[in-house]
Amino acid sequence: MPELPEVNTVMKGFRSIVLHDQIIDVKVKDDRILRNCSEQDFIRALKNRIFVDTYRRGKYFFGTLDNGESILFHLGMTGDISYYQDEFEAPKHERFNLLLASGLTLGYDDPRKFSRILLIPNIEDYIREIHLGPDALEISEKAFAQLFTGRKTSLKSVLMNQKLIAGIGNLYADEICYQAKIHPGSIAKKLESQHLKSLYERMQYILQLACDRDAYYKVYPNDWFWKWRNEDHGILKGKGQIQKMKIGGRTTYYIERYQKLIH
Q1: Tens-digit pLDDT profile for residues 13-25
Q2: What domains, with CATH codes, occur in the chain?
Q3: Cα separation of 107 and 109, whole Å?
Q4: Which of 117, 238, 250, 253 matches a 20 to 30 Å C-alpha distance to 129?
């Protein structure tokens, strides 16, 4: 599933290509990803309008229209946006498209149809309604540390709880824990200030670098856990045995003993 850096990359492309370009036409091919409006309402809301701004909170990316309303693009597991000029270039699983005055077409692609596309009257009201936590790249170190106070759940469960902190999914949670050398199954409330400081610094560094590199995994640093994150590699040289377990219902990879278990 796309996490904060992947969604940020999609939003960057949207900002550079779509903003201030009038929407001439709207075609809906499959309305099942439109979660709070009909096909007709979606077309009426967008046709002849202009996107004037964007906003991202965690994995949620919004495009704001010139009338103050917004469209939420929640990519789900396989959602993505493509841009093309000729119809034959349309993505295979296009669910809707927007024809822009520039001649480009924005095509929304989603093979598995898990996306959530919503019409949003007010972004702040919507975020409060779904109890979405602060963005992982914007939260302060102090506020981050407070998330762990008194919590009996695992470290990884806190990192992935979108109501506490928005944007971190399974892969980046494992990377943060690996680079901080802390076992993802550690008990949240048992973590001391030095552990929380290390986690916060690693989180900021990892997510920002991933955003800067447009979530293009091939140019991530070679020493990141990402490329080794499966049990087939066995022992990671100089670190230890790669292990797998379920934490918070999610498959989790870590290195035994290299990552300290705090409980």
Answers
A1: 999 999 999 999 9
A2: 4-129 (3.20.190.10), 141-255 (1.10.8.50)
A3: 6
A4: 250
